[in-house]
Design goal:
Layout lengths: L19 H28 L18 H8 L16 H14 L11 H16 L2 H21 L5 H12 L2 H9 L2 H20 L4 H13 L5 H8 L6 H25 L5 H17 L10 H9 L3 H23 L5 H15 L12 H8 L7 H14 L5 E2 L8 E2 H22 L3 H6 L11
Antiparallel strand pairs: 1-2
Helix pairs in contact: 1-6, 1-16, 2-3, 2-4, 4-11, 5-6, 5-8, 8-9, 9-11, 10-15, 14-15, 14-18, 15-16, 15-17, 15-18, 16-17, 17-18
């Protein structure tokens, strides 16, 4: 059985010369270069006389921070605190408040959110009554960015490397997009997922801290449960019993936050949540509102070939096949943990119709895991590393039409195809010359349930 992580001729650098800091510097430089290139493109287009969407790579300027302010303003409560000073962005905040009032009672409502983000939004709504909303936003932003930098710095011991890992996340396109939208839930989800997964990577176990962090991330975005599931199924850490424990942790968070949310906002409960999910499906799945900022293979097929459930079903089937092959290859010793993490995150892009770009932030996790591995990277690691880096840099180079809904970005088409190509390449590198070993794992699937 081939042992992944050991140097193989033509696949990895000499272990004796392996310097973990090299990939850290490379990741930092590539992400920085991608960001600078995008900003230069936007600057040049502005100088040439173009307007939005050519002059910035994020969402519509008049809708900035809407996922924070419109969401919180959508909930009832005590009167909003008056501004403590004439903020330059106050007009934008007031516009968000008016828009929230306009959308109240429509299909664009916050009821689709799980109990945990609903509880957090309700607490922020109470804070809006006690403090200036702009100050609340500033404090929340500083806390979120600091937490992300702190979690990323945990991948290194030297200060220079800590700063670089923090820089990789802070300069990444999904972080900029999340900041532009004010989408704190994607940020918190990424922070808890990265922190919990890092503990699993370091200890190869699911201790209570890792389980709690992963349970929080799954309650913010349930799709990310694929990460711990793949780690267990692929034999990288833990056992089936750990997934059961994670289920209990997740259920406890779900129930407690549902009760707390209902106490603060009696309208919200299981029935309202299910009705909200139905509205979300109508507004964001059947006829998406933001196709220009989706990294999703089903969305790409819908745009190019017409909206149909068939494309989503085909993509889910493809994801299942690739996930199954990953499990077999990993259990045959042909894939590293960094590769498994990349495939796990990639499966969401392949299968989920509404995968907005700020959900790409966890891709910094496999980059850091590969770069900080105790062994030199093999070919599959380099392919996964490259795939993640390309997805983490902005590529919103637009064409087609000046109207936002008619102008397509190369990124909308490139990201899903890059993800699919990188996943296929990683899997091909894993099974090449070892197909017999990989298929031999079919007879040993019972090992999944052994700790």
């Amino acid at each position: 059985m081939g042992q992944v992580g050991k140097s193989e001729p033509g696949l990895a650098m000499n272990s004796a010369n392996w310097d973990r800091a090299r990939l850290c510097r490379l990741a930092f430089n590539l992400v920085a270069a991608g960001l600078i290139a995008q900003l230069m493109f936007n600057l040049i287009m502005e100088r040439l006389g173009y307007n939005y969407p050519y002059t910035i790579f994020t969402f519509r300027p008049y809708d900035r921070w809407a996922d924070f302010f419109k969401l919180v303003f959508a909930y009832p409560g005590d009167p909003i605190h008056q501004p403590v000073r004439p903020w330059g962005v106050q007009a934008l905040v007031d516009f968000m408040r008016a828009r929230a009032d306009e959308m109240r009672g429509t299909k664009i409502n916050p009821d689709h959110m799980p109990p945990l983000p609903t509880l957090l939004a309700l607490l922020v709504r109470r804070a809006f009554s006690l403090f200036d909303p702009v100050l609340v936003f500033i404090v929340a932003s500083m806390a979120g960015l600091y937490s992300l930098a702190k979690v990323m710095s945990g991948f290194a011991r030297q200060q220079a490397e800590q700063l670089r890992w923090a820089g990789v996340a802070l300069m990444s396109y999904p972080l900029w997009f999340a900041a532009d939208r004010g989408h704190f839930f994607s940020l918190i989800c990424a922070i808890t997922l990265i922190a919990g997964s890092r503990r699993v990577v370091e200890t190869r176990q699911f201790d209570w801290q890792a389980l709690l962090l992963l349970a929080l991330s799954c309650n913010l975005r349930p799709n990310v449960v694929i990460v711990p599931v793949m780690l267990v199924l692929c034999g990288q850490a833990g056992s089936f019993r750990d997934l059961v424990r994670l289920g209990f942790y997740g259920a406890a968070v779900l129930v407690l936050t549902m009760i707390a949310s209902h106490l603060l906002y009696p309208h919200y409960g299981p029935a309202a949540w299910l009705a909200g999910l139905k509205d979300y499906n109508e507004a964001y799945i059947k006829q998406p509102l933001a196709l220009g900022f989706m990294t999703s293979l089903p969305s790409l097929l819908n745009m190019c070939l017409g909206f149909s459930k068939v494309w989503t079903l085909l993509c889910i089937a493809l994801a299942a096949i690739m996930g199954g092959l990953t499990v077999l290859a990993a259990r045959a010793g042909r894939m590293t943990m960094g590769q498994v993490l990349f495939i796990a995150l990639g499966l969401m892009i392949i299968a989920i119709p509404a995968f907005v770009d700020y959900h790409l932030l966890p891709l910094v996790l496999p980059v850091a895991v590969i770069a900080t591995s105790a062994t030199s990277p093999v070919r599959g690691d380099w392919l996964a590393f490259a795939g993640c880096i390309i997805l983490l840099i902005p590529k919103n180079y637009l064409f087609g039409n000046d109207h936002y809904f008619l102008a397509w970005s190369y990124q909308v088409m490139a990201n899903p195809m890059i993800t699919l190509a990188a996943m296929i390449a990683v899997l091909a590198a894993a099974v090449q010359g070892h197909w017999g070993e990989v298929m031999g794992e079919v007879r040993r699937l019972k090992l999944i349930f052994v700790p």
